[in-house]
Amino acid sequence: MKIAFSAQGDTMDSMIDPRFGRAAYLVVYDDESGETSGFDNQSITGVAHGAGPQTSQKLMEMGAQVLITGNGPGGNAQAVLRKTNTKVFVGAAGMTLREAYNAYKRGALQEF
Amino acid sequence: MKVAIASGKGGTGKTTLAVNLAAYMSESERVVLADLDVEEPNSSLFLKGEVVHKEAIYTNVPRWEKDACSNCGLCQKVCNFHAILALPAEVMVFPELCHGCYACSELCPKDALPMVARKTGELRQLNVGSFQFVEGRLDVGQEQAVPVINRTLEYLNDEFPELDTTVILDAPPGTACPVVAATREADFVILVTEPTPFGLYDLTLAVDLVRDLSKEIAVVVNRFGIGNDDVFAFCEESSIPVIARIPNDRKIAELYSRGELVYRKVPEVKRELEKIRTLIHEYSRRTVF
User: Fold this and answer.
1) Of B206, B241, B247, B258, which is least packed with CB atoms within 10 Å of its CB?
2) Does the structural domain B2-58+121-288 have CATH classification 3.40.50.300?
3) What is the pLDDT of residues A69-86, one digit of tens each?
4) Candidate from A52-66, B9-23, B250-264 with smallest mean pLDDT
5) Measured between beta carbons, which residues in chain B are less than 8 angstroms from residue A47?
């Protein structure tokens, strides 16, 4: 399964970016193959409106079924994530991606 | 003659000045006051009157017609405002982000995005005794102020075309699209500021904006007496006249907080309003002849 994180960097040791729409990076971890791939999302800072839907679309293109983030997506992003059947887990702010993944596996993150 | 009252910084006294100036000028001439700060119109808090006109304001946004769509994705590519998302089997429209430019609708090869009207605001005209007051108001939850401002300006042009009427436009703060929309038609722009570093910084941004629109500028300093002289130095260097100084006075704040007109009880304010009125007339003579 492909699990995506909103992140401040592009490795599993990076910190979670608590924001979703304006996250600096998106990192996808495939827990079957063990591979990670990062996407630099920093160009989103130049976008005045509509960051949530755009980042959601990127997530869909990356093929993630689960999103782990901090605060939780806003209304427009939620609408897109619902259409793309992406499950969202929140409360991972302050963790590295690896810690967030382990917390998710233990069931310690709340489904949004 | 249209005079816009704007500011970079919020809370400098645009509405206080606009309402008091309109009331003062209406004692001797024809005045219309329009509240174009449609995201938070508050001129009406200081005015009492009878509603003589009310209308809904509509903005056109695209509606996705599933059966006609070929999922080509062109609509998303042409939308500068990210209001349309083309997913593999669905097009999502975010009406709050739509600027109503019609690009998606006109360029869709299948005509799958017809534009439909959506209510986003309201316009009211009140007879407040000595003058008419027109207010544009954006509905709660809506994000696009510009169409509401534009419709309010169109209404003003239709209803009050007389050259001898001074139309005072209470503009939104800041330097973004709503300010451009609210000041675009003005014959000149009064920028209200306070003599503080914060006031000065935002004033410089507002001056840049209004100069880009090729409008003449005059500055009114509110809360004169606090801060420092930097605003005055800036205006002098930039050849911008400071046409009035409204003193920092607790009594003014008290009257304001009770929703009362200030100039009727504070002679210094009345004196400053007279200076502004004189300037408006001078400017009016220059542009007409």
Assistant:
1) B258
2) yes
3) 999 899 999 999 998 899
4) A52-66
5) 82
A chain contacts of residue B91, beta-carbon cutoff 8 Å: none
- Give the pair of three-digit tokens for residue B35: 């509240």
Residue of A83, A84, A85, A86 for testing the chain B interface, max B β-carbons within 10 Å: A83
Residues belonging to chain A: 112
Number of domains in chain A: 1
Quick check: do B2-58+121-288 and B64-113 share a fold? no
A40-67, pLDDT tens digit by residue?
999 888 777 888 888 998 888 898 999 9
Selected from 2.30.40.10, 3.30.70.20, 3.40.600.10, 3.40.50.1220, the CATH number assigned to the domain covering B64-113 reads 3.30.70.20
Residues of chain A positioned with their CB less than 8 A from the CB of B97? 49-50, 76
* ipTM score above 0.90: no
In order of B30, B32, B125, B231, B280, the CA distances from B164 in angstroms are: 7, 11, 20, 33, 12
Pick the residue from chain A with its C-alpha nearest to B92: A80
Q: How far apart are CA B227 and CA B251, in angstroms?
A: 19
Q: Where are the domains of chain B?
A: 2-58+121-288, 64-113
Average pLDDT over residues A94-109: 94
Domain range spanning residue A72?
2-111
Alpha-carbon gap, residue A112 to B9, rounded angstroms: 38
Q: CA of B82: which chain A residue's CA is closest?
A: A50
Say whether B97 and A79 touch across the interface (CB within 8 A): no
Is A53 in contact with B94 (Cβ distance < 8 A)? Answer: yes
Q: What's the token pair of residue B76?
A: 């998303």
